[in-house]
Every structure is written in structure tokens, then in C-alpha cells.
């Protein structure tokens, strides 16, 4: 399921940087509904296994930096514990999306992507819910209406990121073709 679209040249760092910046920006917009599932699925489907995990952790770190640095999240044990829990849930969501993608490799990309999203969302929400009911509190945040909002934000973000990824891929391929045409039309010495 992973595409190594951005493994060459400047594009290699552009895509992860864009996801990290999107994570930081969306943190300021959604505050408590940062779409980590969307980031996890995009990381899992566009990068190597290691690269996907690194990107997920980087997006989470950007989220925490914005949260504590700009949005003034409280520096309490519970707040920090929730931050760590969210990071761990995002990593688990990425692993789930990677595993589903690997197992469904022969299936069409749309089927793999949708199935990876469903698996990642379920793993992410279950991990958070388990911590809420076992030790951190806040189980009321898992009411169907709230979970539906989280699902919608993640789905919309995934569609947006996928579109940006496709656009960047198209631009990169066009640039490579242009370079290839120029190189092939150059006089031979």
C-alpha cells in the first residue's frame, strides 16, 4: 500500500514537511480534534514503514508544541498523560493502516485506503477510550456525536491531504518528464 512517491530529490522532504505543517495548523483550528488518523493513514500509504512512523511522531510533536506553546494547554499530569496517550494512539493507528495496506496489497488503492482508514480510526479511538476509562477519565468525550465529529474531521482531512499528495505527485512527474525531454534533446558531444 505504501507508495514511495517522494523518495527522490527535494520532494522527499517536501511531503513530510507539508504533513507536519498541516498538523500544526490544524491543531490551532480544531484544538482538541487534531486529525491524527488522517495523518496516520497518509503516512502509512505514502512512505516506507519507518518513514510513516517517523512522520506520525513528528506530526504529534508539532501538535504538542503548538498546544503547549501557543494554545497554552495546561501543564498538568493529566494533560501531559493525554498528550502521550494521543501520540501512542497515533502510532498504533499508523501501524494498523500499514498492516491493512500490506494485507490488501492486491486490492485497488481506493479499497486499501478506505480499509486502512477504518482500521486506523478504530484502533485510535479504542486506544484513547481504553485510557479514558482505565485511568485518565474523560469517557464522556466518546459520545456518538463527538466520535462522529472526530470521524468527519479525519475523513475531510484525509481527502484534502490525498488531493494535495496527488497534486504534488503530478507536478513532480511532469517536472521529471520535462527534464527527461530536455536531456534527450540535448546535443551529444
Concise structural overview:
This protein is mainly alpha-helical. It contains 6 helices and no strands.
Q: What descriptors fit this protein?
A:
189 residues, mainly alpha, 79% helix, globular, disordered C terminus
Order of helices and strands: HHHHHH
**What Rg is obtained from the alpha carbons, in whole angstroms?**
19 Å
Number of strands: 0
Cα-to-Cα separation, first versus last residue: 43 Å
Rounded mean pLDDT score: 86
Topology:
Elements: H1 11-30, H2 36-46, H3 49-69, H4 77-103, H5 109-136, H6 144-185
Structural overview:
This protein has 189 residues and is mainly α. It has one domain. The protein is built from six helices and no strands. Helix 2 runs antiparallel to helix 3, helix 2 packs across helix 5 and helix 4 packs antiparallel against helix 5.
Amino acid at each position: 500500500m505504501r507508495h514511495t512517491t517522494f523518495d527522490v530529490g527535494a520532494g522527499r522532504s517536501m511531503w513530510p514537511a507539508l504533513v507536519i505543517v498541516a498538523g500544526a495548523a490544524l491543531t490551532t483550528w480544531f484544538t482538541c480534534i487534531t486529525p491524527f488518523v488522517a495523518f496516520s493513514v497518509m503516512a502509512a500509504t505514502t512512505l516506507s514503514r519507518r518513514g510513516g512512523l517517523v512522520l506520525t511522531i513528528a506530526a504529534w510533536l508539532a501538535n504538542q508544541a503548538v498546544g503547549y506553546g501557543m494554545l497554552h494547554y495546561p501543564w498538568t499530569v493529566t494533560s501531559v498523560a493525554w498528550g502521550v496517550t494521543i501520540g501512542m494512539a497515533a502510532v498504533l493507528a499508523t501501524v494498523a493502516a500499514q498492516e491493512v495496506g500490506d494485507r490488501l496489497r492486491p486490492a485497488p488503492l481506493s479499497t486499501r485506503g478506505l480499509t486502512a482508514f477504518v482500521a486506523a480510526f478504530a484502533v485510535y479511538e479504542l486506544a484513547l477510550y481504553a485510557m479514558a476509562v482505565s485511568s485518565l477519565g474523560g469517557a464522556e468525550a466518546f459520545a456518538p456525536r463527538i466520535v462522529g465529529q472526530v470521524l468527519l474531521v479525519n475523513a475531510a482531512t484525509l481527502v484534502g491531504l490525498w488531493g494535495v499528495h496527488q497534486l504534488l505527485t503530478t507536478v513532480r512527474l511532469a517536472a521529471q518528464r520535462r527534464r527527461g525531454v530536455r536531456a534527450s534533446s540535448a546535443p551529444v558531444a
